[in-house]
Design goal:
The strands form 25 sheets. Strands 35, 36, 61, 62 and 63 form a five-stranded antiparallel beta sheet that branches. The protein is built from three helices and 97 strands. A hairpin with an 8-residue loop joins strand 57 and strand 58. It is mainly beta.
């Protein structure tokens, strides 16, 4: 803190009470004496001084508070007034005759302010000050008071200051030891604020830059700029000045940091505009308790620096003068002033009328840093009586603080030789603050001084008026007479010639600038208010002021001159500047012949970029890309060369649905020295555009030449991607075409199903949903033969376009332009068309009559070789229209027609739906051979205009015209759609949403009707299931600028969707092309695949009960409702008739539960069921899309453990079974049969899958029986020549071992069966040649099993297998006899059996089909060469 005043003399309470009277008499005598002997310039005026309350002011402000043309006085400081102690604010008026009168006194009496008792500023007027400025631009000077743990912004209410605080609490800080100044940091015409000091009860150092952001309706908005980095300072000063004359204000700060002994001085340059960065090249003394003044002391136009304060380096008070030389660089002046102060003020003004600035310096002149002393006793010896005999102590110096003893002010006169030399001409004892003002209205600066002659003695305080008594005279300067202004891009430039003065040279004059904007009629809003504090200027010595980002409209402006003595001239003659809504930007883009340019955000930075193509006459032609770098369009030098087209069209379109915009171009191209009609597709890859040359893509020679509007993209078949329509002539066969190119995954091909399309040349085409049925129709305009014509093709909802019998436009159309937009907000798209009928030119607007026809609504100025585009450029909620092109013709000397008189017209739609030419847009270049497009390239909430074409002077131009509407009336974007719904039907989805709502702009207008809002969709793969999914795969959410791809209405249908999971969203688009946020995602899936059985688990219980668990394979969602339940039943795998009643039996599996994909059921086997193997039939299961599974059959056996009792095992598909007879194995073993899914076919004669029967190393004690199903087509009666057989595969060597096999039919399915002596990998084969089988046992036959139960479940086996080997193919017969020798059954295969192991099955039945009784039976097998016998046992229940 600034510390205490040590050793104040006690006041002599016996002194005369009216001490101030005696002080003023003494002070007057002192000044008179000095005037006589020292020729002082200023003399005290006791009469005027008596009006002012004698109270120490820390700051004195001079400004015209009541706008009477005469400056008034504002005093502020901290003092004791009566019984109240605190901060005060007093104001006094000065009349035109020099009379001082009281305005308002003690305005801050209702506020609590505080300075600690031991703080030295308490006795010299306080530790803050005041700042003057018209912060709210109402034409009145406002006052901000700070210090004493306080901040208050009071408004000027017409000469009286309000006692309310207009600084919002969120931005106010209670400051102490503070300095604060207004300044227009960002050159927007608003006064911003910077402060530094202590806050939070003097516990924290702060510095803040508070930006004043007054909108163009006069509403004040504050915002802290947290981008600056600078040391926190207190107990000092700050000052703004344009030190480098670059048109913006720089900042100097100086003061104390944390410790009393510290001092810092820093200069911050305002570069770039609005950003303060430290200039580390300056060497300005580090001071504290500083006073700062910038002023041009050597009359070289730039401001020099005077700074005074305490230097911690040499513990002295000093004033230093720095010369600004060269401009923007400070060096110490050769001559310095030997007078320094702390906690004071410095002002510069010409007091002797010589044209050079003189200086007044005031403040504390006797100063020290004091400490509290604390004694620490190190050792102490005391007597028994308690007396100190000896003590060693250490002294600690704590709580350093500033102390001041005396105040003083001095006046220094400039030598006037330009060398910056000053002479001390007058001293004002006790002055803490000196301020200049012309009190007696003689055009010479007088002085208001305040202070005390005895610090700490309130009766010694004074506020005095000192009149300038110099004999020199002064006249008002004259204002500038030459004023010029103009606008370019978003900048307005105001410049003027120099004013003049009878004394001061021109370079010393400063200027005040006043600019106001006409709002409505005579109402105006100040851009720069004309009120400025005395001896200040709002533009300095510069003769130019530039503004950026100001609204369009009419401006009134004027300038006044300020001479070095603070006298202002009359205002200059008021000038007018009209800034149109559309102004020419500073973008530098080459012009193209027959060019076309288009906006779009290429690189996803939410800024519109630019593509342009055509012919360049200044070099090789090419298509160029310009990237938008925060409003600056720069050519993309990283883009590989792209071919150009002319006389055609360019579109941004994501035709391959990868989420990036591609480019399509049609027209005439020259590639590799060959000129032809071209279609160029450039796809966006890794940040650049590359020619799409993928296989099956349209070639470059597939294009047509038909004019600027000869192609368009739209989803006519409602499959989500954009298809291409293009028309014109092909140079290759000189034939006219009109074709639709269907898009399939980014590959374009001609839709040959379209039979009604009529080729035209020239040709203009546009997709449009004429009848609002959610299916795009087509308009085509052009010339058919020698006649102009227009065709309307109606979409029949399947993508087939049928030529309407009605011609949509009555006027023939040859050279043409067309643009689609719902101008009357009825949800039906209307059309603007530029026609050429012979030599007659027309530009007409046609209204869509509810999808039935188009009717002419308004005729505009006709044009040809033209361009049209709809857009709400004035943000009033309805569509306006830009039209450009040639409006006249000229027959040349060569009798050729030349088109002349180009225009670029903006038609503004009024409240009656009529289009009125906006004649105020004088900056627009009129062009023919033109291309125009709206787009908000600078993201300021209005539509800018892109124009390419040829001017009347044959100059080729590409221009961007910036729209200034957004400064006062930015477009409010619509809300995002909500309540998204999806309804799937097979491979189509019907989507709907609740539309967005467009809101009014700031001026309570500009709302696009709900029904006229457009919508953009995005649809693609569901990233909840695949993070790498392409969310643009169906409908790209990447749109070019304009209407292409947008939809009317709040529903849509997408067809021909592939199976998959999808997500989609939608956003709203208003007439100003403002887009809402995307809606939340909605999800759906397309499922055309019926569910399948994934796994079947069979749990065998007791009593013949089986729990069957079926897990369905379904990618999406099963339908678990009762009507969609699967139907599951079982049959015996070997016999249809389970109970022997000659009727096929089925066993229904009873449902237990069904949830998600898992169905559980219970199967109960009857007592007479043989074995436990089952054949399951599963059908009728449905998913949520109604897909029904195919009827499927599965074979299941228990988790098979084969024991010595034998048993059978069946593969899951039922195609392979193996029977183990009794005692085939020594111990229990688990057997499995599994198909080999991935195995190469080793034999082209393979007729079944390979199956592995494991464990393959199992040692068999008896042969087993294998049965393999074979295709029925192999049973055509010629198997004798096919040699069907079973083979075993060695999976290591790949060799096949032939086993043999007999044919058997089970339930109508043919099988090959044979005996096995070992397990492994097996399959069924056929062979064209005789097979050779090794290791045959041809001397016996075997029945396996030896005992079986054909009538019941005593044993699992209902059959026996007669096993035998044959050396070659042969006819065999098996006969069954009982023990009495009676024959019971003859078994004779219908065909010869092949060589190798064979099997004949006996089912235990006789000739009548009855099961034979239990007992022993004899089996004989007869072949052509031998007879063999064996026995078999039958054991029934």
């Amino acid at each position: 803190m600034i510390g205490t005043v040590s050793g104040l003399k006690p006041l002599n309470r016996s002194m005369f009470l009216n001490r101030n009277f005696f002080f003023k008499i003494s002070f007057l005598i002192l000044l008179i004496q000095r005037a006589v002997f020292s020729q002082e310039v200023f003399e005290i005026d006791t009469d005027r001084s008596s009006i002012l309350q004698n109270i120490i002011s820390s700051d004195i402000g001079i400004s015209d508070l009541n706008n009477d043309g005469v400056n008034d006085i504002i005093l502020s400081g901290y003092n004791k007034i009566g019984n109240q102690e605190g901060l005060f604010l007093n104001t006094y008026s000065i009349s035109s005759t020099g009379v001082i009168d009281t305005l308002q006194m003690n305005l801050l009496s209702n506020y609590f302010t505080y300075i600690p008792e031991n703080h030295s500023s308490k006795y010299i007027g306080g530790d803050g000050g005041l700042a003057l400025g018209d912060y709210d631009k109402d034409g009145l000077i406002d006052v901000l008071i700070h210090g004493s743990e306080f901040m208050l912004l009071t408004r000027n209410l017409g000469g009286n200051l309000s006692t309310n605080n207009y600084m919002p609490d969120d931005f106010s800080e209670s400051l102490g030891e503070s300095s604060l100044q207004w300044a227009d940091v960002d050159n927007d015409g608003d006064l911003d604020l910077f402060w530094m000091g202590l806050k939070n009860g003097r516990t924290t150092i702060t510095n803040k830059l508070l930006l004043n952001q007054i909108d163009f309706d006069g509403n004040t908005n504050w915002a802290f700029d947290n981008s600056i980095v600078m040391p926190d300072l207190r107990n000092g000063a700050l000052a703004w000045e344009d030190i480098d004359l670059d048109g913006d204000l720089d900042l100097l700060t100086s003061g104390q940091q944390l410790t009393v002994e510290s001092g810092v001085t820093k200069l911050y340059l305002n570069d770039p505009l609005g950003r303060l960065g430290e200039d580390t090249n300056q060497e300005i003394a580090a001071l504290k308790g500083t006073a700062i003044c910038f002023s041009d002391l050597d009359n070289d136009t730039d401001s020099d620096l005077i700074i005074s304060g305490y230097s911690p380096i040499d513990s002295s008070l000093k004033t230093l003068i720095y010369v600004n030389e060269p401009t923007g660089n400070f060096r110490l002046a050769d001559e310095q002033i030997n007078f320094g102060t702390i906690f004071g003020s410095i002002e510069a003004i010409d007091i002797n009328m010589d044209g050079f600035k003189d200086i007044a310096i005031s403040g504390a002149v006797q100063h020290s840093i004091n400490y509290d002393s604390v004694y620490l006793i190190d050792t102490l010896q005391m007597s028994e009586q308690g007396d100190v005999l000896e003590a060693d102590t250490t002294v600690l110096l704590l709580n350093p603080r500033d102390s001041v003893w005396a105040l003083e002010g001095k006046i220094f006169l400039n030598s006037g030789n330009g060398e910056i030399e000053f002479n001390d001409i007058q001293t004002i004892e006790g002055a803490r603050t000196i301020s200049f003002v012309d009190v007696n209205q003689d055009k010479k600066p007088d002085i208001i001084a305040s202070g005390t002659t005895e610090v700490g003695d309130s009766d010694s305080s004074f506020v005095s008026v000192l009149l300038n008594v110099s004999s020199d005279s002064n006249n008002k300067p004259t204002p500038p007479s030459i004023l010029e202004s103009f606008a370019i891009s978003n900048r307005a430039i105001f410049n003027w010639g120099a004013g003049s003065d009878d004394i001061a040279p021109a370079q010393t004059l400063q200027y005040n600038l006043s600019i106001s904007r006409v709002i409505d009629g005579n109402e105006t809003k100040a851009l720069i208010p004309e009120v400025v504090a005395y001896n200040n200027s709002n533009v300095g010595t510069r003769l130019i002021r530039e503004f950026t980002n100001i609204p369009w409209g009419n401006y009134h402006w004027k300038v006044q001159t300020i001479d070095p003595s603070g006298v202002i001239s009359e205002w200059s003659e008021e000038k007018e500047l009209f800034i149109p809504r559309l102004v020419k930007s500073f973008q530098s883009i080459p012009g193209y012949s027959y060019g076309i340019s288009r906006w779009s955000d290429i690189n996803d930075d939410e800024l519109l970029d630019l593509a342009i193509t055509g012919n360049l006459y200044t070099g090789s032609s090419k298509t160029q890309i310009y990237l938008n770098d925060d409003g600056i369009l720069n050519v993309d030098n990283l883009q590989p060369r792209m071919a150009n087209v002319y006389g055609g069209h360019l579109s941004f379109v994501d035709y391959n649905n990868d989420g990036f915009l591609d480019i399509s171009m049609t027209g005439i191209a020259t590639i590799n020295f060959s000129t032809f009609t071209a279609l160029l597709l450039y796809k966006y890859e890794n940040g650049t555009f590359v020619l799409d040359e993928q296989e099956n893509q349209l070639s470059a020679s597939s294009g047509y030449w038909g004019g600027q509007y000869n192609h368009d993209w739209g989803d006519y078949d409602n499959d989500g991607d954009l298809d291409l329509v293009s028309g014109g002539i092909s140079i290759f066969d000189n034939t006219n075409y009109l074709n639709i190119f269907n898009n399939s995954n980014g590959l374009l091909s001609i839709d040959t199903t379209q039979t009604d399309l009529v080729p035209l040349f020239p040709s203009a085409v546009v997709w449009i949903d004429i009848n609002r049925d959610n299916h795009l129709d087509l308009l085509a305009l052009g010339r058919l033969g020698s006649d102009g014509i227009s065709h309307m093709y109606i979409n029949d909802s399947t993508g087939n376009l049928t030529l309407s019998s009605e011609q949509p436009f009555s006027i023939p159309s040859t050279l043409h332009a067309i643009s689609v937009g719902d101008y009357n907000n009825d949800s039906f798209d209307d059309i603007a068309v530029a026609h050429l009928d012979g030599s007659n030119m027309h530009t007409n607007i046609y209204a869509n009559e509810n999808g039935t026809r188009f009717t002419l609504q308004q005729e505009l100025e006709g044009a040809t070789y033209s361009s049209l585009d709809w857009g709400d450029y004035d943000n009033d909620g309805d569509l306006d229209l830009v039209s450009s092109g040639y409006t006249g013709t000229l027959i040349t000397d060569l009798e050729q027609t030349e088109y002349i008189n180009p225009i670029t017209n903006i038609y503004q739609q009024n409240e009656n739906g009529q289009f009125i030419l906006d004649s105020s847009l004088y900056m627009l270049d009129s062009v023919g051979l033109s291309s125009t497009q709206w787009g908000d390239y600078d993201n300021d909430g209005d539509l800018d205009l892109l124009v390419t074409g040829e001017t009347e002077e044959k100059e080729l131009i590409t221009r961007v015209y910036e729209n200034l509407e957004g400064f006062t009336n930015p477009n409010s974007k619509p809300t995002k759609p909500i309540m998204l719904l999806s309804d799937v039907n097979i491979d189509s989805v019907y989507i709907s949403w609740q539309g967005g709502i467009d809101t009014d702009n700031q001026n309570e207008s500009g709302r696009t009707s709900d029904i006229a809002l457009k919508y953009q969709l995005q649809m693609g793969e569901d990233q909840n299931y695949s993070l790498a999914g392409n969310t643009h795969s169906i409908i790209s959410g990447k749109y070019g600028t304009g209407r292409m791809g947008s939809r009317s209405g709040t529903n849509h249908v997408i067809n021909s969707l592939p199976e998959g999971r999808y997500q989609w969203r939608v956003r709203s688009i208003d007439h100003s092309l403002g887009s809402s946020e995307w809606s939340d995602w909605d999800y759906y899936y397309i499922d055309q695949t019926p569910p399948e059985v994934d796994t079947i688990q069979v749990n065998y219980g007791v009593g013949g009960q089986i729990i069957i668990i079926v897990n369905f394979k379904e990618e999406f969602e099963m339908n678990n409702s009762s009507e969609a339940e699967p139907f599951i039943y079982a049959v015996h795998p070997d016999m249809n008739d389970i109970d022997g009643d000659q009727i096929s039996d089925t066993l229904v599996v009873v449902k237990q539960s069904y949830s998600a994909t898992v169905w559980t059921g219970l199967l109960s086997l009857p007592d007479d069921y043989i074995g436990k193997s089952i054949k399951l039939h599963i059908s009728n299961a449905k998913d949520m899309r109604g897909n029904i599974m195919k009827h499927s059959v599965y074979f299941k056996t228990p988790q098979k453990i084969i024991s010595q009792a034998g048993g059978s095992v069946i593969s899951s598909d039922g195609n392979v079974s193996i029977l183990f007879p009794q005692n085939a194995v020594n111990e229990d073993v688990s057997i499995s049969i599994n198909p080999l899914i991935e195995i190469a076919a080793l034999d082209t004669n393979l007729i079944s899958n390979f199956y592995t029967i494991s464990p393959s190393d199992l040692e068999l004690k008896k042969p087993t029986i294998i049965r393999i199903a074979v295709p029925t087509n192999e049973m055509d009666g010629s198997q004798e020549n096919q040699n069907l057989h079973i083979g075993r595969l060695n999976t290591i060597t790949g060799e096949k071992t032939t086993i043999g096999g007999s044919i058997i039919s089970v339930n109508g399915t043919p099988y090959l069966q044979s005996q096995l002596s070992q397990l492994g990998v097996f399959a069924a084969f056929k062979s064209d040649s005789t097979i050779i089988v090794d290791s045959l046992k041809m001397d016996n036959i075997i029945c396996q099993p030896r005992i079986f139960s054909p009538a019941g479940s005593v044993f699992e086996f209902p059959h026996t297998n007669i096993l035998f080997d044959l050396p070659s193919s042969d006819n065999v017969t098996a006969r069954i006899f009982n023990v009495s020798g009676k024959i019971k059954r003859t078994l004779k295969p219908e065909q010869k059996l092949g060589p190798g192991s064979n099997v004949i099955v006996w089912d235990g039945k006789d000739f009548d089909g009855s099961v034979v009784p239990s007992g022993l039976y004899i089996v004989t097998l007869e072949s052509s060469e031998s007879i063999f016998r064996t026995t078999v046992g039958v054991l029934n229940r």
